[in-house]
């Protein structure tokens, strides 16, 4: 029998310990259902475990990134809701400024005040138009319950169901009713 030059020499006590451990390891492998694995198989298992760990890391990073994107999107939506009115307010603030200047005018001339209020109303109408706010003034139109709120009825020569008086104008934002027009509707003379 030829001795392997690369083999490690064990003293007799170590040989006994190794001999006793070998059957115990073999019993443990058999209990786990593990066959005796070659070095190549062990290397393959190690490589697969490393690949599994890398994929698990990629997965966890992707989940974290998805959560960050979801959170950022929620923050963006919240900010959009919170500041959506800002552009409109930039259009309305000059109207407030004009009204304040009209109140501070001490000239006492009614014509100047009326002119200033007319100008201010035009500023406000322009700001509302830019915000896609349209006025509903349905005088003479048929009652539309989607856009009008009938407050009362009065006898009139107009066709029954027609708006004969507007108590308060209504408004639309784009095509959605912001406030219905409060109206008085015609009924037949009795």
Automatic annotation (TrEMBL):
GO molecular function, one term: protein homodimerization activity
GO cellular component: cytosol
InterPro entries attached to this UniProt entry: GrpE, GrpE_CC, GrpE_head
Disordered: annotated segments: 1-35
Taxonomic classification: Bacteria, Pseudomonadati, Pseudomonadota, Betaproteobacteria, Neisseriales
GN (gene name): grpE
Protein name stated in the entry: Protein GrpE
Cellular location(s): Cytoplasm
Coiled coil: 38-76
Role noted for this protein: Participates actively in the response to hyperosmotic and heat shock by preventing the aggregation of stress-denatured proteins, in association with DnaK and GrpE. It is the nucleotide exchange factor for DnaK and may function as a thermosensor. Unfolded proteins bind initially to DnaJ; upon interaction with the DnaJ-bound protein, DnaK hydrolyzes its bound ATP, resulting in the formation of a stable complex. GrpE releases ADP from DnaK; ATP binding to DnaK triggers the release of the substrate protein, thus completing the reaction cycle.
Compositional bias ranges of the Low complexity kind: 15-27
UniProt source species: Crenobacter caeni
Domain of life assignment: Bacteria
Gene3D superfamilies: 3.90.20.20, Head domain of nucleotide exchange factor GrpE
Keywords for the protein's UniProt record, in alphabetical order: Chaperone, Coiled coil, Cytoplasm, Stress response
Major place of residence: cytoplasm
Complex and partners: Homodimer.
GO biological process, one term: protein folding
Record-stated family: Belongs to the GrpE family.
